[in-house]
Structures are given as structure tokens and as C-alpha cells.
Amino acid sequence: MDSADIEVRPLDAIDDVFMASNVLSEVWGGDRSGMPPNLLRALAHSGNYAVGLWSGERMVGASVAFFAEPSARSMHSHITGVLPGMQSKGLGRMLKQHQREWALARGVGHITWTFDPLIAHNAHFNLRVLGARATEYLVDHYGAMDDGVNRGDETDRIMVSWALAAPAAPTPAPDRVVTSVEIPADIAALRATAPEDAAAWRRRVRDAVLAGLADGLVIGGFDDERGYLLVRP
Fold first, then answer.
1. Contacts of 2 (CB under 8 A, 6+ apart)
2. Would strands 74-82 and 110-115 be described as parallel, antiparallel, or unpaired?
3. Helix axes 37-45, 14-27, angle to 10 degrees
């Protein structure tokens, strides 16, 4: 893929808004309610972050974030997605870097977002590649969701905060790690073939992380083999 062919542009035109809503619907397995065009149009028009990722004349991804309270100098990245055939090509990182530059130009110092703690590649990207810091474990944060990704599962999430001007948070040294919490290598495949096992993983990871947090530990990083690394703050 020629990187010169890839461009991030704001969703200024109504046709682009509908296109972005359709792209995000496809990424989330046909969910039409995750980012409806009217809400996306309102967020874009009121000055929030709303962009499409184009490969030539085709939109292949989109990202939407909105501002937090003024004193926080922060914004929350609500949804970012790249079409399945275009994933694992560095486009998600391109969107995040564009989001970072856009935020810094507007005096924003932090971006927060949530991700499913069972999705290993998201944990790797957020905590190891970007160096964001895990700040909360949220149990069933969104409630029941009727899309092809989340349907039938509880929506536990990890909240992360990305300090845009600070160095990436490093993976903790081995002597700092008090305990680790393993997660499955491919929860999506497990949900499709053995949903009972996937649900058991949800409970196991939730209980282990919450027990560590209750003991005063924090999520200090992620390791592809060991999972979440819990450390003393």
C-alpha cells in the first residue's frame, strides 16, 4: 500500500458524514446506532474531532472524539475504526497520530478512550505502541450492545489516558511486576467458536484485575505473553 495514497480529512461535507457512519457500521458488524449520521454531523459541526481516512477516493476508516470539560484540557476518543480489509497496515496508528497533532494544536494535553480488555491487539497497541496509561477498569461500561462485535457479551472496558506531550509510558521492569493477568490470544475467534469459554475469560480477567486494584495495584503495562502487568504505583 502506498502511504502517499492515504489521507486524513475532516468530515465537512454531509456525504462524507454518511460515508463515515457507514464505514464505522461495517467495522462494528452492522451496527447502525453506534455513530448515526445526525450525531456525527452535530459533533463535527460543533468543532469536535471528526475525520475520515481515505485511500484514494475510498474512505477506509474514521475517527470521532469530543472535548471534555474545559479545565481538563482533554478530549475523549469515542470511536475509531478501519475497514477489515485495511487493518494491520499501520492505519490505526496514522489516525491516532493525526488525532494527537489536531489536539495539540487546540491546547489539548490528554486524550482518553476505552477498549475491551480481552482484545490483545488493542491492549498491545494502546499500552505498548502508544504508551497510554490505564486509569480505570470499568465493568459492563456500556451495558448491552447489539452489534456484531459486542452482541451477547458484557462490555467491560479499560480506560486509558494518553499524555500527548509526555514520553510514552514504558513497560514496567520485571522487578516491578507484582502479578500479571493473562488474556486470550484471539477473543474474537473464541467468541465465534466457544462463547461459554469467552464468557469465562471475561469473568476471570475482570475478577483478577479488580482484585489487584483493590489491593492497591495499578495496571502498569501489557506483555504479549503474560497479559496485563500489575504494579505498585
1. none
2. parallel
3. 120
Which pTM does this prediction carry? 0.90
Question: Of 199, 184, 205, whose CA–CA distance to 119 is shortest?
Answer: 184
Phi, psi dihedrals of residue 24, rounded to the nearest 5°:
-65, -35
pLDDT along the chain (233 residues), means of 10: 78 96 87 84 97 95 94 93 89 94 96 97 95 96 62 84 92 96 94 91 97 98 97 96
- Sign of the alpha-carbon torsion through 148, 153, 159, 160: negative
Partnered with residue 113 across adjacent β-strands are 160
| One-letter identity of residue 136 | E
- Our measurement of the distance from residue 53's CA atom to the centroid of its chain's CA atoms, rounded to an integer in Å, reads 16
